[in-house]
Design brief:
By secondary structure, the protein is of the alpha/beta class. It has 18 helices and eight strands. It has four domains: 114 residues, 2-Layer Sandwich (Nucleotidyltransferase, domain 5); 102 residues; 111 residues, no CATH class; 54 residues, 434 Repressor (Amino-terminal Domain) (Orthogonal Bundle), CATH 1.10.260. The protein is globular, with a radius of gyration of 28 Å. Keywords: Coiled coil.
């Protein structure tokens, strides 16, 4: 019985079409064809490729964008998929640019093993959708607030003075959303108030939308990686971005150094003459770099260990930028562990029942631990992570139980 010929396919992806090229495992070109980006088109493309032999691997451009649908179809048909980079510009200048050429280039890149990556997990798409919607809402909210302030700058004097007295943006938005423009007679005042009221109501709607999307992001990130979400300073937004960058797929990250380079926090030499120093790489995923930057700022502001470390580095003569670079590199190392080897986290659900069973008030517990009662309340409800405080709290509660017995 003759065994099937082993086939490699390369795929050049677009919005409405994909171009598939088939070659043998020795690099011999067989054929290429174009298909529609529909379930039927994907089925026809796979059937066409299998007519030449056994398809054992496929190289697809843009597995998280135009190639996402075909990637899923290939995986559903038990075909191993790798993501290939687009041909570099030097090769395109030498060989030309067309869909068939790009498809064959992708197939040959698979054989050469050059510039390959494992496609991101489908969960990444869900996180990305929620994160895009949330960030869009935040951006629109900021724009609406600025528009209100700009309108009030040029508003009639009495209107400007009336709404200047509100100390916060929240209070100003609440007042404008409930104003009644029709009670005024001046047409300019009516027009400005009508515009401000519409913008204020838009802000309130966006506030509710941001809250709902944040809650959904929190639920998804806690389900996918509770240890990452529980890390100090990591919120739903930053956790989602790090999971998107990693692809919720641990096989994509070869090493901790590779993740640091991917996130743009790998130190590179920046020395000249007598000055010997390093700076962070400006390459990689800038959104992931921004997530690490925000985590570093939160820890520098609120985490005692981070504050002590920063103080030591500043005393040693380092600048704030250098300290921030060191912090981001260290945080990347910690985040890599959470992304590749998720560990179980401490469950705080026993704290409140234990306290209530002993008739201990929040105030008494907070006074003993030297924190505010709201901190204990948030800890008991799982709204705040602080493992060392939770361990001390649990030990104290157990001690009280033994003393009572």
């Amino acid at each position: 019985m003759t065994s099937l010929r082993r086939i490699v396919i390369g795929v050049d992806t677009h919005l409405d079409t994909i171009h598939v090229a088939a070659i043998t495992d020795t690099g011999q070109p067989l054929a290429d064809a174009e298909f529609r980006t529909t379930p039927t088109g994907y089925y026809v493309a796979i059937t066409w490729a299998r007519s030449f032999g056994e398809v054992f691997i496929a190289g697809v451009e843009g597995t998280s964008s135009y190639g996402a649908g075909f990637t899923q179809a290939l995986q559903d048909n038990s075909i191993h998929v790798v993501e290939v980079n687009r041909p570099n510009r030097a090769s395109r200048r030498r060989e030309g640019k067309s869909d068939p050429l790009d498809a064959y280039s992708a197939a040959r890149a698979v054989l050469a093993g050059h510039g390959l990556a494992i496609p991101k997990d489908p969960n990444t798409g869900a996180l990305k959708a929620l994160l895009i919607a949330r960030r869009g809402a935040v951006k629109a909210r900021s724009a609406a607030i600025q528009q209100i302030k700009d309108l009030l700058v040029t508003a009639p004097a009495d209107l400007r003075e009336r709404y200047r007295r509100y100390p916060t943006t929240v209070r100003l938005v609440q007042a404008l959303s409930r104003c009644r423009p029709t009670t005024h007679t001046d047409p300019i005042t009516v027009a400005v108030l009508t515009a401000c009221k519409a913008l204020a109501q838009r802000i309130e709607f966006l506030d509710r939308q941001i809250g709902e999307l944040t809650t959904e992001l929190d639920t998804v990130t806690r389900t996918l990686n509770p240890a990452l979400r529980a890390a100090y300073g990591v919120g739903p937004d930053t956790a989602a971005q790090l999971l998107i960058t990693a692809g919720t797929n641990t096989d994509r990250l070869r090493s901790e150094a590779a993740f640091a380079r991917l996130a743009g926090v790998a130190p590179i030499p920046a020395s000249s003459g007598k000055i010997t120093r390093h700076r962070l790489s400006r390459g990689g995923d800038r959104a992931a770099n921004n997530a690490l930057h925000r985590i570093a700022l939160v820890r520098w502001s609120h985490d005692q260990r981070t504050r002590a470390y920063a103080a030591r580095q500043l005393a040693a003569g380092r600048s704030k930028k250098d300290v921030l670079r060191l912090l981001k590199r260290a945080i990347a190392r910690e985040m890599f562990k959470h992304l590749t080897a998720p560990c179980p986290i401490d469950d705080y659900s026993d704290l409140r029942p234990t306290r209530q069973a002993q008739n201990i008030t929040l105030t008494s517990a907070a006074q003993h631990l030297g924190v505010w009662p709201t901190v204990i309340s948030r800890l008991e409800r799982g709204l705040q992570r602080h493992d060392s405080l939770a361990a001390n709290y649990r030990h104290w509660l157990n001690t009280q139980h033994i003393d009572a017995a």
